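Cross-posted from the bioinformatics board.
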Amino acid sequence: MIKAIPKPMEEIIDNVKDFNKLLIAGCDGCVTVCEAGGLKEAKVLASALRLYFTQGGRQAQVDETSLTRQCEKEYLAQLSDRIDQYDAVVSLACGCGIQYLAEMYDKKIVFPGVDTCFLGVNEERGLYSERCQACGRCILAETGGICPIARCSKRMLNGPCGGSEGGKCEVSKETPCGWELIYERLKTLGQLHRFETPTVPKDWTTSRDGGPRKIVREDLRI
Amino acid sequence: MRLQYPTNVRIIEVPCTGKVDIIHLLLAFEQGADGVIVVGCMEGDCHYMAGNLYAKNRVQRVKEILDRVGLGGERVGMYNLSSGMGGKFAEVVREMTDKIMELGPSPIRIAKGTAVRAAGEVAA
């Protein structure tokens, strides 16, 4: 899922301090799972902003809500009858949700309330790590289910590099070498022969190199 | 034990401090509390394994939030006491009450007009 972290309170306050009517819009999708932008976090931010305005002697209205998903028009439409009463919206959705909200309500000022980080997994509560870079052409079948694009700091296709030491990456001793992980997994699977054939250069046109991407699924469209 | 502790303290009972969320503490301040303490079981003694440890993290988060919004993180605190430590409880409550008296009323109450600054205190 998409992983995000809450933005520093100072940054949010700096953005919204001149407005009197604010809506904090959480998202019940990915950002709820990583506890960065769900209804709970929206309530906490709204309360914190109310305290900020009140102690400064300001009469500001700060309300909170949460939408099932901010990356879908149908759910964003649920704000249509009330969004006009607010001067600005702080969206706690991922970058996609924030942009889609701003796109749908193009006359409304929308601020981000989270920093969207990566596509990752929940290792445990409060510990999330990257697993996918959405390159658009999955090669996990060849690499024992471990992605060298996301797990190798250099995105090497034929690793490991000379910087791998004791199973750790030279970029950080905290980071396991992606290619060491691949080697160990392929050894467990009895597929070390995959190392005998070099991986051919990857087609990056499906990644960001081709500009903003779009999926058109004619089988799903009517 | 007939222990005495300040009467301006309102006790809200919860089954475990793990039930206390960040929003509960913030709402207490919004509603005019001058200070809040969370009193949980001793660390390592939680019947639900880690309820008091979750509470500790949340109280810390609330401290940070209060610092950032201008109320001051020292208005919230967490103590770990067992059910057999009544004397210590009274002491802790007295200690927190004294601290809050020293800090003065919450800026929220001053802004809402339900409290006034102490003589000589200057508006921030």
